[in-house]
Amino acid sequence: MIKIESRKLSIDECNRLAGIFMSERKNTPLESRRKLEDVAQDFAEISASDDYRLLVAVDEEDNIVGCIYYYVAFRLMDFISGFIPLVDENSDSEKIALSLIEAAKRDTVERCQSRLEIEFVFPSDEHRAHSKKYVKWYSKCGFKFAAEEMHMKTDLSAIELPELDLPHGCTLRNLSEVSYDMLEKPGFRTLENSKEGLFLSMSHAERRITLEYFFDKSKPYIDEASLILERDGKIVGFVITCMKDDEPDIGPVGIVPEARGQGLANYLLVRVLQSLKDMGSTNAYLDTTITNIPAQRLYRKYGFQEVYHKQFYYWSP
Predict the structure, then answer these.
(1) pLDDT tens string 31-40
(2) Both 192 and 285 in a single domain?
(3) What spatial distance separates the first Cα and last Cα of the chain, rounded to whole Å?
(4) CA 8 to CA 6: how far, in whole Å?
(5) Could you give the CA distance from residue 115 to residue 137 in angstroms, rounded to a whole number?
(6) Which whole number is the average pLDDT over 189-210?
(7) Do 126 and 179 fall within a single domain?
(8) Which DSSP string corresponds to 69-107?
(9) 290 pLDDT exceeds 90?
(10) Helices (H) and strands (E) in the chain, counts
(11) How is residue 218 annotated by DSSP?
(12) Which of 54, 78, 106, 290 is deepest in the core (most CB within 10 A)?
């Protein structure tokens, strides 16, 4: 009989989970060279953090045989980072994994959240192949495919950027000069009429919260590379750039539906890349849905190449 529990972990229990982590990932694309004590420390921090929920599976002798954990410090939505649940390979892996996922679903509902989302990152084809076991587990628990995205990178020192005039009738402003109330309506219309599959898989309320996150000025955004384009007093385009892992990460990038096909996205991207070059940045990154061919064509024009892919699945009550 397997029980699923939420509890703060002891040092010994963190070491137990670290052992499961190391053993399960040995001889797979996920194999870690980290020390056992470092992995155990990660579990200790997750267990102690209010930003995460950690559920453990225990057998009849109260031995931990698996776990699942997810980020909960976001309104309405909880987030799982892929290739979990972790399950003791000497146990009934699928049964325990499904029990952990179902428990996470129940917990999501009990905390009045509306979405549980998982992200799988594929640095290689081997990672994608390894994910099939986990995708099968989540699919059995009712998770649906949301989107596949491409993470792209450009070498700013290797690209030549054209000098472009401000489009006729337009004004360029920095994010710091524009309120969220001004951005909300054009931002919402832009993303609702886009090819961004992850955003489109969300409920209306979840989309609004995501939009607030995109334009959140408390994030480490780069004002010189976070630009708002206006025409006739109305916002027609935007690019937001934040620092992520000490590198500029561009996105979202958007043009309102009625202003597309006029070169405005090209203008904004060039201005952002030039600003980053002037600041001394050597690289820039962004994400785009793999089905958004026009966006990919624009990004490749300025040296962006794919680094890895990632897939998203979600469950809603």
Answers:
(1) 989 999 999 9
(2) yes
(3) 27
(4) 7
(5) 17
(6) 96
(7) no
(8) EEE--SSSEEEEESS--EE-TTS-HHHHHHHHHHHHHHH
(9) yes
(10) 10, 13
(11) T
(12) 78
Query: What is the average pLDDT across 38-62?
Result: 96
Q: Do 92 and 203 reside in the same domain of the chain?
A: no
Same-domain status, 171 and 299: yes
**Long-range CB contacts for residues 59-63, cutoff 8 Å, separation at least 24:** 59/1, 59/2, 59/91, 60/1, 63/16
Q: What is the pTM of this model?
A: 0.95
Q: 180-192 vs 204-214: helix axis angle to the nearest 10?
A: 130
Residue matched to tokens 């989970």: 17
Residues β-bridged to residue 287: 151
List the CATH number of the domain containing 87. Answer: 3.40.630.30
Shared domain check, 166 and 272: yes
Q: What does the pLDDT look like over 137-154, one tens digit per residue?
A: 999 999 999 999 999 999
- How far apart (Å, rounded) are the C-alpha atoms in residues 126 and 266? 35
- For residues 168 and 264, the answer to whether their CB atoms sit within 8 Å is no
Beta bridge partners of 118: 80, 313
End position of a domain, from candidates 142, 172, 190: 142
- Kindly report the average pLDDT of the chain as a whole number: 96
| Residue 91, number of CB atoms within 10 A of its CB | 17
pLDDT-derived band at 168 (thresholds 50, 70, 90) equals very high
Residue 89 is predicted with a pLDDT of 85
**At which residue do the structure tokens 């649940």 appear?**
85
